[in-house]
C-alpha cells in the first residue's frame, strides 16, 4: 500500500495505508450516539472514534451491542442469549459504511451510528457510485469505492466477498422476525436503518408471517424425518429450500417442545418423532 515516486525509489504511503494506521494524514471519524425516543432531540450517551478504520469498526460494533437489548431463550437445556438485532448484520453494515464511504474531507464528514428507541441508523458520507442502485444492492451488486481498503479488510477477515453482505443481512433479519433493511440513497450520503424488536410503524411487520412460515417448516421437517430418521440438517435445508440455520432453529424448537428426540451422536445417530404426529 505504498507508491514508488519517479526513479528515486522513494516510497509514499497511499490513502489506504494512512486509513489503516495511526496516521494523521487522513483523520476519519465515526460518531456513535444513543437517543431517547425516535429523534435526535435528546442525547443519552455519545462516543466518537478517531483511530485506524479497522478499530473504528470494532469499537462502533461493541458500542451498539452495549446499548441494545439482550434477551435469553432456552431452545434446549442450555441458555441462549440473543440480541434484538442480529450482531452479524450490525457488524456488516458498520464495516460497509467504513469501506464504501468517501474519504474526501473525512474529518468534517463523519460516519454516524445512531440508536433510537425503535431503530438503528448508520449514515455514511458519499452517495452510491454511478451505476449502483438500492435495488441492485439488495440482490448483491457492489462496486467498491475503496478497493485497496477492501483488500486489506478482507485479508483481516473483517469483510467477506464483495456484494454478499446485503442479501445475507436480509435473510438474518427475516429469520429473526424483523422488518426488512431500509436503504436511502441521498445526494451526499447513504443511510441504512435496522428496526429493533417490537418497533411499530405504518409498515406491516413480517413477525406474524414469519411465525406461520416457521410453523409450516416445522411440520414439513417432522414429516421428512418420519420418512427418513437419519436425514441431516443440511439435507433438510436442501429439500425445503431454506437456510441450514433456519432448519436448526426449527429442530431446536421441536426438541424443546418434546416432539423430537436425537438418538445417538450427530454422526451415525438418528431422529425420533416422540408423539408420532406431523404437526
Write up what this structure looks like.
With 279 residues, the chain is α+β, with helices and mostly antiparallel strands. The protein folds into 2 domains: 8-195, Heat Shock Protein 90, CATH 3.30.565.60; 207-273, Winged helix-like DNA-binding domain superfamily/Winged helix DNA-binding domain (Arc Repressor Mutant, subunit A, Orthogonal Bundle). Helix content is 37%, strand content 22%. The chain is built from 9 helices and 12 strands. It has a 6-stranded mixed beta sheet with strand order 4-3-7-8-10-9, with helices on one face. The protein has a two-stranded antiparallel ribbon with strand order 1-2. 24% of the residues are buried. Mean pLDDT is 83; it is low at 201-209.
- How would you sum up the major sheet? 6 strands, mixed
Whole-number tally of structural domains: 2
Molecular shape:
elongated
Neighbour order of strands in the largest sheet: 4-3-7-8-10-9
Sequence of secondary-structure elements? EEHEEHEEHEEHHHEEHHHEE
Secondary-structure content class: alpha+beta
Report the CATH architecture of the largest domain. 2-Layer Sandwich
What is the radius of gyration? 23 Å
| Helix share bin | 25-40%
According to DSSP, the number of beta strands is 12
Spans of at least 5 consecutive residues with low confidence: 201-209
**End-to-end separation:** 58 Å
CATH topology of the largest domain: Heat Shock Protein 90
- Name the average pLDDT: 83
**CATH C-level class of the largest domain:** Alpha Beta
Task: Give the number of helices.
Answer: 9
Work out the strand percent.
15-25%
Amino acid at each position: 500500500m505504498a507508491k514508488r515516486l519517479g526513479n528515486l525509489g522513494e516510497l509514499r504511503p497511499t490513502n489506504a495505508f494512512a486509513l489503516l494506521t495511526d496516521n494523521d494524514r487522513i483523520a476519519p471519524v465515526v460518531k456513535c450516539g444513543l437517543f431517547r425516543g425516535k429523534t435526535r432531540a435528546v442525547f443519552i450517551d455519545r462516543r466518537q472514534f478517531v483511530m485506524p478504520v479497522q478499530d473504528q469498526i470494532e469499537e462502533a460494533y461493541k458500542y451498539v451491542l452495549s446499548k441494545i437489548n439482550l434477551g435469553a431463550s432456552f431452545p434446549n437445556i442450555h441458555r441462549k442469549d440473543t440480541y434484538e438485532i442480529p450482531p452479524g448484520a450490525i457488524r456488516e453494515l458498520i464495516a460497509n459504511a467504513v469501506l464504501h464511504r468517501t474519504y474526501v474531507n473525512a474529518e468534517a464528514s463523519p460516519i454516524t451510528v445512531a440508536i433510537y428507541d425503535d431503530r438503528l441508523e448508520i449514515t455514511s458520507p458519499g452517495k452510491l457510485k454511478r451505476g449502483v442502485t438500492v435495488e441492485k444492492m439488495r440482490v448483491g451488486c457492489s462496486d467498491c469505492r475503496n478497493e485497496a481498503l477492501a483488500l486489506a479488510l478482507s485479508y483481516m477477515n473483517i469483510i467477506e466477498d464483495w456484494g454478499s453482505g446485503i442479501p445475507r443481512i436480509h435473510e438474518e433479519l427475516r429469520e429473526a422476525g424483523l422488518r426488512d433493511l431500509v436503504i436511502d440513497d441521498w445526494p451526499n450520503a447513504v443511510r441504512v436503518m435496522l428496526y429493533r424488536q417490537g418497533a411499530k410503524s405504518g409498515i406491516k411487520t413480517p413477525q406474524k408471517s414469519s411465525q406461520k412460515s416457521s410453523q409450516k417448516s416445522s411440520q414439513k421437517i417432522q414429516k421428512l424425518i418420519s420418512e427418513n430418521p437419519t436425514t441431516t440438517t443440511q439435507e433438510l435445508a436442501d429439500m425445503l429450500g431454506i437456510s441450514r440455520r433456519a432448519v436448526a432453529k426449527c429442530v431446536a424448537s421441536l426438541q424443546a417442545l418434546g416432539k423430537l428426540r436425537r438418538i445417538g451422536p450427530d454422526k451415525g445417530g438418528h431422529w425420533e418423532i416422540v408423539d408420532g404426529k406431523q404437526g
